[in-house]
Amino acid sequence: MDHVATLQAYDEQIRRNLDPDGPGVRVERVDGVVRRVGGSAHDWNAVLWSDLDAATADAAVAEQVRFFTALGREFEWKLYSYDRPADLSERLLAAGFTPEPPETVMVAEVDALPLDTAPPEGIELVPVTDAAGVRLMVAAHDRAFGTDGSALGRQVLDQLTTAPDTLAVVVALAGDEPVSSARIEFRPGTDFAGLWGGGTAAEWRGRGVYRSLVAHRARLAAARGVRRLQVDASDQSRPILRRLGFAELATTTPYVYRPGA
């Protein structure tokens, strides 16, 4: 994979020129930033890309804080390792943002991935298509990450209901117990589909559940002619993805601003 060309395509297609990717979502370009404004109170809001320098950064950050605070929305500034100015992270901290753990942007060509990896014995992969399936997805998320996935569940159900062609969700069941879940988001007009989720309950880790979920979603992408898969990988998933053929493009750190916090 050509690292420079792939990073350029990712920056152009996913950060700078991404079309609205959900019901009621707006993608706005203003004051040197590209921002995603969610379509509902529980949707994700973010600054996706910026073109700033030392003279313009503080004013742009302050304007985004004012904008989302006026909406009463928490939002995330997705800071990438190649963004400028070089001290943008310090400026975000000074403005009241809280950093979350950094992730590694990893990309693979779909036709280079192993597509035939089956789930381990005792695991069934079940597509999520309705509210009952979303409840299983949220239960798997909460079990794997130890966090409240209810807002995520509402977002996913909204998207499945209003734009089902843009999303596929799968739950890994051990009998009747959800032990993992994963999503693939399709981005029409781009070379990329995004892989999300995949966290697995502790007792099932290291047994191939995550690998089977990657293969399952890669098959869905191949069937739709998607060229590349992209993951914001945690420290736990990065070694697995590297062994499967994903390459590291950059790092990204979510800086979160919570009005009134």
UniProtKB/TrEMBL annotation:
Residues 123-261 form the N-acetyltransferase domain. InterPro entries: Acyl_CoA_acyltransferase, GNAT_dom. GO terms for molecular function: acyltransferase activity, transferring groups other than amino-acyl groups. It comes from the Bacteria. Coiled coil: none annotated. It holds the Pfam family Acetyltransf_1. This is N-acetyltransferase. It comes from Streptomyces longispororuber.
